[in-house]
Amino acid sequence: MRMRVARIGITMVAGAATLAGALGVALHFTDAALEPVVLAASVAPYLMTGAVAGALGFAVCRRWIATAVAVGVVAAGVVTQAPLYVADGAGAGPELTVMQANLLFDGADPAAVVETVRAGAVDVLTVNELTRTAVTELGAAGLDTLLPHRYLAPGRTASGTGIWSRYPLSDTVEYDGYVLNQISATATVPELGPVSIYSVHPVPPVYGIAVWADELSRLGSVVRAAPADRPVIVGGDFNATHDHIRFRAIASGRFADATDQAGAGHLVTYPTDKRLPPLVGIDHILFAGAHATTVETVSLPGADHKALVARVVLHRR
Prior knowledge:
Number of helices: 11
Mean pLDDT: 95
Structural class: alpha+beta
Low-confidence stretches: none
Helix content: 25-40%
CATH superfamily of the largest domain: Endonuclease/exonuclease/phosphatase
Largest sheet: 6 strands, mixed
Order of helices and strands: HHHHHEHEHHEEEEEHEHEHEEE
CATH class of the largest domain: Alpha Beta
Radius of gyration: 21 Å
Strand order of the largest sheet: 3-4-2-1-12-11
């Protein structure tokens, strides 16, 4: 009797775990602009792992049809996540190092930011949540010496955005109609020529799902309008993960996420100011006409995001 009750209990738990896995797969593909759905999609990979437990539970209970269903859900989950772990060939060309950082207003330790730039020999830095105070403190810490060219749109709290570069910047643009600042510039890289650089920061979905979806869509149009005859770099806190279909729409066509290109797996960047470790990867660096060879996360004391540092090969056109 006890064995039968135990089997029923295991079966029920396995069923719930498999349903959680199936929900994770479904969330990866949905474009429903509903706050609970969008927020749940952020943790889709964690839900997908439930199907593994489901398959094991069903197998223990010798429920083979249910086991096969759970294994199918596991396979579907693997298909959605495997591209993050498979590196593509980079080819040859000039190399750059790009860093993306959310500074939490002026909370990030400026000395730590500058030391990360120095230690990583960073050539291009894109930042979000840039205040005027942070601009002053980063300059005092030596950032302007390492990266002497800059185009900045600082603001209060989360609105500020910036680009620092080792190379001269021109064609600077600030895009209207967004809650936070979105900017771009053109860097002139020796032996290569112009490289388009974008620093973006769409609002989080909790600000308003319709606004979040609209800003991601319009930012996709903005970066796709970048000249096709040169490499393009897009760094930002996208407030979206690999499992949000609206983000993948941007990281498609001639654009690709550095994490995907380098096969770096799930690089979680947020939050870093809680008791739990970071759970989601919402910071990204996208490339067109270029290919990331390595990508890593770097902790920034005082910030609530980890920074990303990508090493990239630029392709001549």
